[in-house]
Amino acid sequence: MSTIESTPTTTPTKAPTFREQLVGFHLIWGVVLAAVGYFVCHWLGTKVGGHIDSQSATDQDDLAVFFGFLGATLGWLIGLGFFNYPLSRMLGRPASLVEGEEYGVWRYFRLCTDHKVVAIQYFVAVLFFFGVGGLNAMLIRGELTSDNATFIPAGNYLTLVSLHGTMMLMMMSAGVLGPLGNYLVPLMIGARRMAFPRVESLTLWLTVLAGFVLISAIFLGGFPTGWTGYVPLSVEARAGMDAYLFSFALIGISLCLVGLNIIATVMTMRAPGMYWNRIPVFVWGMLTTSILAVLAAPVLFAALYMAALDRTVETTFFLASNGGSPFLWDNLFWFFGHPEVYILALPGFGIVLEILPVFARKPLWGYRVAVAGMFGVALLSFMVWQHHLFVSGINANLRPFYMFTTELISIPTGIIFLIGMGTLWRARIRFTVPMLFALAFFFNFLIGGLSGVYLSDVPSDVTTHGSYFVMAHFHYTIMGGLVFATIGGFYYWLPKITGYKLDETLGKIHFWMMFIFFNLTFFPLFAAGLLGMPRRVSNYNPSLHALNVFVSISAWCLGLSLLGLLANIVWTQLLVREPAGPNPWLSKSLEWQLPSPVPAYNFERIPVINSAPYSYGIPDAPPVADFGKPAVLPGGPAITPEGGVI
Amino acid sequence: MSAVGAAANGAGADVRHGRRILIIWVIANVILVPIVIWVVGPHIPPYHASRQSTEQHNVNVVLTALATPVLLMIWVYFGYSIAVFRQRGAEVVDGPPLEGDPRIQITWLVATTAIVLALAVYGTVGLLGSSNGAGGGQGPTPLAKPANAAGALQVQVIGQQWMWTFRWPGYGGVETPYLVLPVNREVEFHVTSIDVAHSFWAYELGVKADAIPGNDNVAFVKPTQVRSFQIRCAELCGLWHGHMNTTGRVVRQAAFNTWIAQARVRYRGVTKQLPPYSHVYYPVPDQRAS
Amino acid sequence: MSASAAPVVPEPEDPRLVAANLVVGARLFASAMAFVFMSFVFAFFYLKAVDSNGMWRPAHVSPPQGYGIAILICILAAAAAFELARRGLASGTGSVSMLALALGLSVAVVVLQLIEYLAGVDFGADGGGYASVFYGWTAMFLAFWLGAVYSVETLLATSMRSAREAQAAGTTIETLRPSADATMVYLYSCAGIAVVTWVLLYLIK
Amino acid sequence: MGILVAAAVVLVAVVFYIADFLSVAPPVLAATTSNGATNLTLQTVASYGHAPDPDWVTYLGRDSDGNWHHTTVYQLPAHTLVHVTIYNFDGASGLRNPFLAQIRGTQGGVASVNGKPVSVIDQDDASHTFTVPDLGISVPLPGVADNAPNQCSVAPCSLSMAHQTIRFSFVTPGPGTYRWQCFVPCAASFYYGFGGPMQTIGWMSGWLNIV
Fold it and tell me: Are A59 and A123 found together in one domain?
């Protein structure tokens, strides 16, 4: 626990002088110290690891590489100022919860405890790495226009695929919890901050570092294993593998801490009257996702740690010849990996169920059932991981059980669909861009979910396993589901964050391009898989050539459509800048009752909540919250025993 | 379209909209489900090259036939709602504040649960009963065996970076770089690897079994057609993963006998050097100093 | 961009809020830590069951029992000392001596573990499945234990300072209790894991 | 929002580097022809001896002027008899799958080792193999004895140093691109001896571009 804090001293400090800003702790020092730390510790590692056989070759000194990454992390965090507070605490100085909020624009380049600043940093970081991963995908489709490895050398193609997969998985798992979660959860439950502001900032900067460490793999020869990092291939691979292991471990830590922070916030910091049955469904989505993150990420961390030991100090966790077993990795990785794919689904559920009532102008149809469905998904996702190993020869006699649990998940998922359908019933639907994305989410996720039934059925899975069918399936659930929902949420909440609405017409052009070309890209890949095209190959049966060329072209159009989003951001947020007003969507949710952009302290007075934010069409419904009440201490009821904390 | 008027008078509107949606859905099913089964169905891979791939083909057809009504229901519902319940014009009107109806929710739960249970039972029967594991790898102690497993032709599949080789314990432990199988005979694959993880995928035969070092992965197949089939690697195994392809052949018993006899003669010299036949060969993680 | 707000001075937070934050956070972190070591428990039993190539635990591989006992006793003693210190805080009387004892013991754990690596263990990390689990597990536990050392040290330093300068800005014995409770949760979880570690790695043959 | 611009700049830089990295490929070396016969002359060295990976084992190819080039992408004419000569300067390390000790797919199913035709070698003598799985061609290369004098360690090695000479011929098929590789786990300091050079085109794996 690096966060032993006590009562905060929230006296606003005066803005620092320019000189203070320059010499203070910020990103520039972080980068400089990270570089210094890498080389110093790499040299140290060569000294330490010299006597280990596997480290003897000068070009394969994994221990030194890991030392270097550790040094880089240390320098990065020192430069960003993450060690000042723990050290002052170790000297017994008093606790505080506020840091770096007075630095003007420099807030965005350093440790800052304002959850809104961190969320915006997250937005930029995730968009950036999403762009890197997406351009990788464009290059992959370029390679696949030929049925033999020609455009990109075979080995580098594997690195490309691995970079794309790992980058997307890492960034998308932080992609909603980080930006939207950090920004909206305190606003939606009526709090001024997250429970652990410094931890919040730490997770962001770890995520950023992880992204660049992963990219640095190509300086180290790349890695050939895809995002699953299967052993023993990952044990024999080149030093680029160390970058994969280290960056994924950083993400694991970050993910775990994000979840911890959000759970603690929701449990303890709800405003008076924000009872459990009044929490917005988006917050429930964040909560269930966070539970998965807190419990699953540590297992990933342990697995990566074991692989790192195998590569550096010659332990034999995964080497069958020396008492290890490759199945150990498969089990640990997928025990994380399957909750991970629901970490990538539940936020989508939360976003679309939050958007639907606003534009259907109706209450959420069955609030409690929706929450129950989310918890059902979260619970079941821990019991299905071996369906990734149906043909691997591990615990083959348990396959009926895992087939059953896997198919069970379609029940709570179906509930989410039922709620969406019920909310649309006799509604007054307005087709704004966020609503279009929410509806597209149901369209895509339906196809993704139904294709999952084929994969969960073992006889069918024998053919589809490890083929492009799987690839199309999880792109339908992750991109068609989470990414569509996230972009919808982005269109929906950006006016609240920046104060400027995104352009509707441009947004609709973007939506239709993205929707059409997404389906044109990934639906044919189901056929490619059934026709016998394995994943992650740079060459394939010539009879599939026309299909792949078609897919490549529509994939590039899909990439172009995302430029529409970028253009929309630049146009409306940088050039035109028409103020959106506090509540452009006429939503009843708490965050929309605040001015946009949200002031530094969120609420002048902690509001008193009157009802759940879905009272559309209910005559003489009370306002969602009273803001003018005389000061009530925040979190009053939430931390009494019945509040469920102790 | 009298959407506003329809939505205005409560319960009656519910019934009317519900009936319309139901009718559209039924019509769509009547048209599409037969097409899926009898027009699209026969073309759904994999093919009828073995009893296992036939089973997989049937499963795929059944799942597609079951998925179609579900897909249509959601699509029809959403399409109808989007068309009928759309609010045109600038003014923002609130819809009726309908709360969740427990009866509908319970009905939905029961329906989905029934479908799921049916699928699980169907899959389990297909896996353990009719198709002896459906051609999937079952690990060292297979649960679903063919009736005459004892008489099955034993073939060891050895994955290595980056080539498949095949060992024939019934024929003096000879090892061949090609796979030839007799038709209409139970075959028992023992899939293993001597370096990293591979996955043995005989596409037309509907066989897929991961090759994991230190593990003996058994898969059963009974080829029913004289034809050739593609062999691929379905688990990322390094540089030439995409090139670990070869073509196998299913031939008549007599042709198989001559082929294996020739192979024994041809590889006589190297067979003497092979290690004694075993279900697993542990790779030594040697780091040879150059 | 969110700086353009009227400069309001919000009413101070309820101190109970921070207390609740810390305890919940500590529990969640402890559960995450539990899952890390659950992976090692799984690895232990799985590799033991597979015994691949007969290399789970060759005959010569046996851990130094003395170190195991010593480390476990130090951890439990540190937890006990900290419990006494926490009671002292709760009853309003600072107990710097007990905190100092707890800190000393928890540092002793680190030192003992390092000595065990350098001098005590007579098998290498490549000595089979058990050796891998032994090194991986104990090293990971050491890393988590450093967090406990930090927490205890922080409490000690804070209480010493608040004892020295009666009104060290806003820090009183009162405000130390949340930190103490959170540290207790974490320290007890570590102690529990330490018992499991000892039973699996040292006790089971 | 200037952050977005900064991010875009970094993004472009990163992608440019990735594209640059991904487009590096070893040069193509054409087979030589002398009075009608098509020859491909290669050598294998235990350690390349130069940056970036001095410790890596590698193949080299010789052009018509007799200069050695560090590449494994060779261009051969279609439907022709190609005479391959490989000078192996590396020591033996043994095969993981002894089946690869069998010589397959060459003219007469044999290769000449220092002038003596053989159809199968002792698997413990194998130092490397030259294998084209898609063409069914596989030739193991016996290694230099460990106690041989005057061993070569830095590429390119001159024929005056201890080596084994392996000669064989095969008929190329129609035009196409075929991968070839070495099957001996000979990559020093990599688990299973199969990382690094074994998985990098230009060292122990490559293409035969048949035109």
Answer: no
